Amino acid sequence: xxxxxxxxDRYISNALRINxxxxxxxxxxxxxxxxxxxxxxxxxxxxxxxxxxxxEQALPCVQAQYLLMNKPAGILSATKDASQRTVFALLDAHQxxxxxIVGRLDKNSTGLLLLTNDGEWSRGLMAPDRHVEKTxxxxxxxxxxxxxxxxxxxxMHFPFEDIVTLPARLEIIAPRLARVTLTEGRYxxxxxxxxxxxxxxxxxxxxxxxxxxxxxxxxxxxxxxLLPAELESSAxxxxxxxxxx
Length: 245
Ligand code: URA
Fold this sequence. Notes:
Elements: E1 5-7, H1 8-16, H2 23-28, E2 32-34, E3 37-38, E4 45-47, E5 52-54, E6 57-58, E7 66-71, E8 100-102, E9 110-116, H3 119-126, E10 134-140, H4 146-154, E11 157-158, E12 163-164, E13 169-174, E14 177-182, H5 189-195, E15 201-209, E16 212-213, E17 223-225, H6 228-234
The chain binds uracil (URA).
């Protein structure tokens, strides 16, 4: 869902079917509250998630939803697909109206997937200039070399897009197991980077996006609402990006 914006007087005149002129005296008398605060400005920007109360009567609004899922392998992270199951099949029907995915994972990748109906939040989290870190546990077929670690840190040229990848952190945990941290999300990025070293990726599991960490005990396919602290830390201006640390 894209974030729909309007101004407060237009919103109230539509909701109450009154003239926009007639909203002004309500504002002047302090009879309108927006997200808990008395509103005075007719042109206050309002989105579909705003809680607007007129004389103690709440106007209809859309509930913002922020979900965290442990994506299982073998299922698409897509809104819909003609022939294959998508992650939306794992949610209750009432949960997935209007949700979209924030930063997809490949079909065989697993781990942290975020879903929301708040387009402003997801765009902020994924904005290329925000460099929010994403961390993955990656197992590969062959032992990882020091050259590979250096190449990830230096950046690699991707001829198809004609870009150089941003510096990525590759930490060797075991000869064939690494923790990889990216600050961008290019198509099949980690597989292509290991591909340069002819080292196929066997499994790829995302554990973190910014300050949001997947609970290690969460079963594959399970989901839950984000906690207020997680939401706060991932909002634009929150402490989600650690990339320049
Ligand atoms: N890099 C990949 O190659 N695949 C993913 O799913 C995520 C990052």
